[in-house]
Amino acid sequence: KNQVEQSPQSLIILEGKNCTLQCNYTVSPFSNLRWYKQDTGRGPVSLTIMTFSENTKSNGRYTATLDADTKQSSLHITASQLSDSASYICVVSVRGGSYIPTFGRGTSLIVHP
Amino acid sequence: EPEVTQTPSHQVTQMGQEVILRCVPISNHLYFYWYRQILGQKVEFLVSFYNNEISEKSEIFDDQFSVERPDGSNFTLKIRSTKLEDSAMYFCASSEEDRMVGYTFGSGTRLTVV
User: Fold this and answer.
1) I need a labelling partner for B38 at 20 to 30 A (CA). Which of A19, B13, B59, B112 fits?
2) How many whole angstroms separate alpha carbon B49 and alpha carbon B93?
């Protein structure tokens, strides 16, 4: 069964600090992996999307990594800001066949001043 | 930046009533989707729509649900007879290509069934 597991479930950090969120997946055959940011009561907003051949992708202070061999991804946030407080969701899609993507439960990040 | 627009932002309905959730996808997008998120749970896929027909649907998308693109701009989700467990945030999304490349979500409609 295709699964996406994220850790930690929640994280509290101080403003200005860095943090790394983890995503492990069992989805196969792999097509792409996306990280989304979801503010409370809002729709998810895409941060990065990576295909099988990509190891790293950055979007401002967000850097995602992908290890397709170990089926792991991480999202690193540099110099956190209060506005980074949100849920970060990892989503994995398969290649061919069913379109239906597999969502992780998300990591809830709270940035304190 | 182009947006996916959803209306209403919040809808309260009585159990058993029909509701229609509306979405205006990004104008040059070809693929349309509905997702839902029950409070505190993860986002769940409901249905994808392309070329005026459903291309894929999940187990959640049973006979109580239907989708329609009544004109060139709107994309709707209808729930025929709402149940308490239909209470959730419903997100519309659209993309130029399949597999979520260039994929944009709307801000959602919070549906509360009482």
Assistant:
1) A19
2) 10
